[in-house]
Backbone:
């Protein structure tokens, strides 16, 4: 057996399991070995059947001598029942509501079962719903960890998917390791690096992570694989940066006087942090290689104003005047609501200038200024808008993913702004950047999701980082409270108090529609559709209420947001579709239903919707949970002074899992846990820098690293 061998060459895999493996992108022996346990469960001492006593948590081995489907006598519940025996006695095992297992557990098979022993009499002991695994033979002695089950202190538990169980994965990985295939896997990390950081070899790490004898071995393996993932992620980012910056870019020098006059058009003074950000970007734009910068700012810190200043610097620059047409700016947002909002914001900033601005999304094609309606945008045929963009006569183009479609061609794309950049993959970012036909465009990524320093070093190794760590003058701190069910009436009264001041409110629900009443969480998770009706009929009949969710059409969304922004409605009941960037300054209170169901990043973003003016903002976190873990997270949200502090708190609470969600960054759980360790991240980055220095600069080489599955 070799790491590159197909699993199907060595195992008979049932179609449901094969389908699950395909979805996990696991086809080869090596790929299965890189599917790591999510946790370890105590296996319990391995005992002979006659040594079991009531209350034991133990593991037994035996041959199945009876297997049948039955019905529990009290409630007529279908169940599977087997009897196993070893040299010392017999033991009964039952699985309620899993009658199908009687067919799976075949007569004569040898199984390992782990569970709690019930029954008072020695001849009536049993296990209810034990974990089980079919094994090739009874355990042997000899001290070899691959066969001596008694030596195993920890049982690996793997993430399960429909069609594949943790036990299936555990059993097949064990069979693979028994062949010694791990010794034939090429270690992608140099020996001197392993020695320098006291990391186990790949062969040992694979054995330690799947079959640890103790916590120390499991931890050593996790450390090694975390280092490996961060190390190669850094190499990838550094090579990306090197390749991008090797291209030529527009040399853009802004007119200081004109830029200063543009700044005076704002109705608010820029903060010191915003001014520093503008200077950083100005400095980068002067270079002949493209800028790669991340603008990281808390909710409401003014990233859009910085983007507007820098966009103006580009379209009014010396390079723009020398080009056959004005240089172009592409501004990509993750949602149509956000793209439309930024489009209208720029219209206000640029309305005194003769600079056309366009919006292109899946359903909208708008151009400003309109020839017929003064001061407003107008809808135009999509082919005509695409032609104007290709001819270079529209300098600033807003849009969603629609901007990276093949039909969208820019003539002089000099500057790309990507809002909420973590919503886009590197490939999507690259597609937009490659639309610079003449030169590579400068790139500014923006995010309102503050992340810990270690995660920033890991994920954004290709970007220079600028922080907006100040809020605009006059912004008030949000008063955040956790609301239990018996406090709901008081919260409704607090919302009514704000509405009487002619303010507006958000109510956020986890679901769009009412859940199936047969599902166990049906009474907990409120829906937008039902809650909007309930609030109108029973709580706020005197106020105008609208609803907004992702299943609405783009036209419906735009109209709903327009009415809310213009205060034609008082309360907006919505899903987290309003999480990012939605700017309604008159909204001062937000009630988040089922707050424990949202991630901390979402909660922080959602409450930021009401911190957009000089009025005191309020956030109420309604929860039905009594879970200690959930309450600890919600209390962190209440006490954190800002998003940066919250990110660090969440890192310590959850291991970077929620605020900066590993899935959205493409980082596995193992690496996310390790990101708490600044020394490990810095060490991996240092080694990656040294590695990249030694690579030929003329071409991008792929490393031989075996891919870790991130699903």
Residues:
């Amino acid at each position: 057996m070799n790491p590159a061998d197909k699993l199907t060459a060595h195992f008979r895999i049932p179609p449901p399991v094969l389908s699950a493996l395909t979805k996990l992108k696991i086809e080869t022996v090596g790929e299965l070995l890189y599917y790591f346990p999510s946790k370890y469960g105590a296996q319990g001492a391995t005992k002979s059947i006659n040594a079991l006593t009531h209350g034991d948590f133990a593991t037994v081995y035996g041959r199945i001598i009876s297997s049948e489907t039955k019905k529990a006598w009290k409630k007529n519940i279908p169940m599977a029942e087997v009897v196993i025996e070893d040299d010392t006695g017999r033991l009964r095992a039952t699985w309620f509501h899993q009658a199908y297992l009687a067919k799976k557990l075949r007569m004569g098979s040898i199984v390992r079962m782990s569970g709690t022993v019930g029954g008072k009499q020695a001849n009536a002991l049993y296990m209810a719903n034990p974990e089980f695994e079919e094994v090739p033979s009874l355990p042997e002695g000899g001290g070899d960890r691959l066969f001596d089950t008694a030596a195993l202190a920890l049982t690996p538990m793997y993430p399960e998917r429909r069609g594949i169980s943790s036990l299936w994965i555990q059993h097949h990985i064990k069979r693979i390791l028994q062949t010694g295939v791990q010794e034939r896997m090429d270690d992608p990390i140099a020996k001197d690096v392993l020695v320098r950081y006291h990391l186990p070899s790949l062969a040992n790490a694979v054995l330690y992570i799947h079959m640890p004898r103790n916590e120390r071995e499991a931890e050593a393996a996790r450390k090694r694989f975390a280092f490996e993932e961060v190390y190669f992620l850094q190499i990838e980012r550094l090579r990306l940066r090197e390749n991008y910056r090797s291209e030529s870019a527009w040399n853009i020098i802004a007119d200081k006087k004109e830029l200063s006059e543009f700044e005076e058009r704002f109705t608010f003074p820029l903060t010191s942090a915003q001014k520093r950000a503008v200077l950083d970007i100005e400095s980068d734009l002067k270079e002949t290689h493209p800028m790669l910068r991340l603008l990281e700012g808390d909710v409401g810190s003014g990233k859009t104003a910085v983007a507007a200043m820098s966009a103006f610097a580009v379209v009014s620059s010396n390079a723009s005047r020398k080009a056959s047409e004005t240089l172009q700016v592409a501004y990509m947002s993750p949602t149509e609501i956000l793209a439309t909002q930024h489009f209208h914001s720029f219209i206000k900033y640029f309305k005194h200038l003769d600079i056309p601005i366009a919006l292109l999304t899946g359903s909208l094609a708008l151009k400003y200024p309109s020839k017929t309606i003064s001061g407003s945008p107008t809808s135009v045929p999509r082919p005509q808008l695409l032609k104007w963009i290709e001819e270079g006569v529209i300098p600033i183009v807003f849009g969603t993913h629609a901007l990276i479609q093949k039909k969208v061609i820019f003539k002089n794309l000099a500057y790309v702004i990507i809002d909420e950049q973590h919503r886009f993959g590197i490939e999507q970012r690259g597609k937009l950047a490659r639309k610079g036909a003449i030169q590579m465009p400068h790139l500014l990524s923006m995010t309102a999701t503050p992340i810990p320093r270690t995660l920033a070093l890991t994920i954004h190794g290709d970007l220079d980082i600028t922080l907006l760590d100040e809020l605009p003058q006059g912004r008030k701190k949000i008063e955040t409270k956790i609301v239990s069910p018996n406090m709901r009436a008081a919260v409704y009264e607090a919302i009514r108090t704000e509405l009487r001041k002619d303010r507006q409110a958000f109510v956020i629900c986890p679901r769009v529609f009412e859940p199936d009443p047969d599902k166990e969480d049906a009474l907990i998770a409120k829906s937008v559709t039902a809650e909007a009706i309930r609030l109108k009929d029973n709580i706020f009949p005197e106020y105008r209420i609208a609803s907004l969710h992702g299943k609405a059409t783009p036209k419906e969304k735009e109209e709903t947001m327009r009415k809310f922004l213009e205060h034609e409605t008082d309360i907006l009941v919505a899903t987290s579709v309003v999480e990012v960037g939605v700017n309604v300054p008159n909204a001062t209170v937000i009630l988040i239903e089922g707050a424990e169901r949202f991630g901390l990043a979402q909660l922080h973003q959602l409450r930021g919707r009401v911190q957009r003016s000089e009025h005191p903002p309020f956030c109420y976190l309604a929860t039905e949970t009594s879970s200690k873990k959930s309450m600890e997270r919600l209390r962190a949200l209440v006490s954190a002074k800002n998003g940066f502090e919250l990110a660090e708190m969440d890192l310590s609470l959850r291991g970077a899992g929620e605020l900066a969600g590993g899935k959205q960054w493409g980082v596995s759980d193992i690496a996310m846990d390790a990101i708490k360790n600044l020394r490990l991240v810095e060490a991996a980055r240092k080694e990656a820098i040294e590695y990249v220095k030694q690579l030929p600069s003329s071409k991008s080489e792929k490393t031989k690293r075996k891919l870790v599955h991130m699903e």
Summary: Confidence is low (pLDDT under 50) at residues 141-152, 517-523, 655-664, 698-711. The chain has three domains: 44-151, 256-468, 479-665.
